[in-house]
Amino acid sequence: MSEKRKLEFFLLRYVPNIVREEFVNIGLVMTEPGGDGRGFAGIHFTKDWRRARRVDTNIDVEVLEALGRELEQRLLDVDERERLLLQMMDSYSNLVQLSPVRHCLAEDPARELRDLASRLVEMPKPGEWLEGAEPPKKTGRKWIHSGMTDAFRSAGVWELLTRDVSASPYTNDKDDFTFDFGYAVGSEIKLFHAVSLVDVGLETRMFPLRVAKIRPKMASIRNAEPRFTAIVEDNYDEDDSAVKMVLAFMNDEEIRVARMREMAGIAEAVRVDLGM
Fold it and tell me: Where are the domains of the chain?
């Protein structure tokens, strides 16, 4: 067995909005420190910009790809390598930032670079996931919320929505519940919340009861009619007694129930409401 080599690596992060502190990993640089500086040095720069476009629809891919080619060329030049690394650590553009340096051991640095990049940089292709990992879960509140975010971003309305709308003004100052997204239009307040009908726990059961408590006071304080939409999974067990109970309560409270596959249409309706 070959001796494992000590390696350092850091991620290149695309940061379109520094204030929001949102970023997407777009590259990974790995080097082998010590010796005469001629140890391993490699870079993986993404060619798949789907995730980056989700956080910045106006991303300039050509500029970033040119940056990737420049970094690769300079890393291959032994005399240029150290100067490049110091430059990147010291004075890199705010648009592309560096993660903290991390360390690893590997017998084959090139293979380790590929493996790390596949996990930390690249988006798995549909139907694919890493060996030994569970397939992506397409249920649950977190997954629904992510899909809602993608749909609102794609429609260009995400920035115009109020996020994490607090319930406390309509209940009590100890209430930390928030509705995921909302906006006011005319005499209405429209609120959207991810609710899982596959993982029917306390949070799901409580949602229609919260709406029942909040609706009248919100209408009075805001002098507007609240409209609630629960976004749920595309597929759930309609014969499950817990699901039936939750849906019945939602119907009683006039909460619209929409499946994830309806999100594109919902986002488009929001865009029209907001006059875009």
Answer: 5-120, 141-273
Indicate the class that CATH gives domain 141-273.
alpha beta
DSSP string, the chain: -PPPEEEEEEEEEEEEETTTTEEEEEEEEEE--STTS-S-EEEEE-S--HHHHHH-TT--HHHHHHHHHHHHHHHH-HHHHHHHHHHHHHH--TTEEEPPPEEEEES-HHHHHHHHHHHHTPPPPTT---TTSPPPP--SHHHHHHHHHHHHHHTT-GGGSEEEEESGGGS-TT---EEEEEEEETTEEEEEEE--SSS--HHHHHHHHHHHHHHHHHHHHHTSEEEEEEEE-S---TT-HHHHHHHHHHHHTT-EEEEGGGHHHHHHHHHHHTT-
pLDDT in tens, 93-143: 567 888 888 888 888 999 999 988 988 888 665 544 444 445 556 788 988
In this predicted structure, the answer to whether residue 268 has a pLDDT above a threshold of 60 is yes
